[in-house]
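Table S2 (continued). Query chain:
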Amino acid sequence: MGTAFPKKAVSAAKVVVVEHVPHTPTIQSYLPAIAEGLAVSMKHFFKNTKEMIRGERPDPILEGYEDGISTVMYPEQKRPYPERFRGVHRLTQRDDGSPRCVACLCCSTACPAQCIFIESGEYPEGDKRRGYERYPVKFVIDELRCIFCGYCVEACPCDAIRMDTGAHAAPYDSREQFIYDKPLLLSLPARDGSLKTINPRHEPGDASYPGLTREHGH
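Corresponding output:
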């Protein structure tokens, strides 16, 4: 009766003969390998120490360091982030300090991780924005669930949410600290320190407003 998986004949051309190395006490103790590794480590240690004392050590971020070992002293030293780096979220502000968010839920709908929660509300009677747009009563982002895909920024029609802070989430020690609410998101600045955005927004009632107003609608 034949076997299910018959053994194949070994080709003589693929056979590699490995010479037997005698296991002497020196080889079994690993002393030569340990001494060689310590010699390499001490060589780099004294070389880097001498360069740091003399001020000859190149900047590992801006100049690079091809010869030897160099360490980026994080967080004092950081590698430069690219212009389109997706950092921690922030909410942009209007001139009066209110959020530009209109609570349209586009960002929370586009979020694949479902980490954005928005509770919308109506402006009070007499406000010129009542009837045209709403505002976020609550705006919460769970940074632990966020995958930093940037879909929320792309989906926002008002440029109200951005990821241009240039910073990543701090290593907190509790889950509550990773829950970013509206006051915290409004207080985070962009890389240039601004709380607004460079993209202008035309409000209802402005001469440059492209939509309908109450006067124009009637």
